[in-house]
Amino acid sequence: TVKENLALAGTPSTVGIRARHNKNQTFNAPVVQAALDAGAVLIAKTNVPQLLLAMETHNEVWGTTTNPWNKSRVPGGSSGGEAAAIAAGLSPAGLGTDIGGSIRIPAAWCGIVGLKPTAGRWSIYGSMSGQPGQEAVRAVAGGLAREVDDLLLLWEALDACGQHKLDPLVPPIVAPPVREVALKGLRVGIYTSDGVFEPAASVRRAVERAGRALEAAGCEVSPYQPPQSWEMAETYFGLMSADGMVTARRQIGEEAITPQLQSLARLSSLPRWFKRLLGAVMRRTGEPRVATLLENVSGKPVHEVWSLVVRRDQLRRAELAAWSAQGLDLVLGPATVTPAARLGETHDWSLGAWNTMRWNLLDHPAGVVPVSRVLASETTRTVLSDRLDRKAATFEAESTGLPLSAQVIGRPWEEHLVLAAMRAIEADVRQDPDFPRTPVDPS
Predict the structure, then answer these.
(1) Is the distance from CB of 143 to CB of 115 less than 8 angstroms?
(2) Active site (catalytic) residues
(3) What pTM did the predictor assign?
């Protein structure tokens, strides 16, 4: 299966906009063509949120995709239709895109595996975007599958050298063989929170279980504290909102904005002075995280965007320096803050994607692997410091049985280590009684 925004000749890439419904693509995106050339049989295209800008897969063209584990929950976005289709057994693997977690969040919430490669490793040409021209945080194409070996098959079949022939801008770099990676002695840093948003107890347990699996495989696992997290969050949201949502509004035209995007649209339309004033009020009333979003989600003049790009590069170097200081080959952490969110409740949940967004800003390859399922004892959030914690508590309530995952992060261009670690984690945890097995019967 193929995410709806990827060009497939004879089919539309609407990204959830009605005006594009009858505009069929005339070519195949190189990543799609590479799959065809490798012998893939394309079954279907899969649903996305409007303009790919939400964690809830809903639009007025194709409707709403729910989570096959629990139909009152979302599958994530923007590759939510892809993850749901794979989790439900409709296809063994598929192609998606990711600019803030759009592969990894759906994979985590649907209990499957997903990989976001380094930008440029796979071709992104032919991918329709909600923000065409935004290059400060680059979108990537990647794969999703039920099991790591299925994902590995996709990874090997769609190698960069083959894609280079279809898209000369893809560097023809030969990826090291994943099955030959020796995990023994690799140093892995593990964290359960980077200080921005404390994950659910269930999510933390899944990360710790994945850490034990890597220790059993011979890795040296030690605590890691990611640096400058809030500054990274401010930079990410500042860059992603730099046009003030003008581009998105032009694409949508006269059509209605979906409920999932209405909060973002209203926030983008507010004057900057008013948002700063409102942010100051929010800080005084105990909502510093919401205030940070208010102050950074806004249109900006070019010189401010350039300054943010400079800061992005500085933050990338700082992260790599922190890894080098501990001699780390990989980092293990949470993929999401909570188990799958409830339908209709993600319009104000942007910061809930921070655990994946961080690695888009820094351009590290990252993969998500299922580990466990929520236990009945893990459905109550005890610290409710602000409205984001309270929203998280509603997602954690009645979440027993939903899948839980861990995120494996590598250095740029070292996807082979990420996949090898995901493979080792899966091999160790899949015999656990609470391992989330797919396919799931949505009925």
Answers:
(1) yes
(2) 3, 78, 102
(3) 0.98
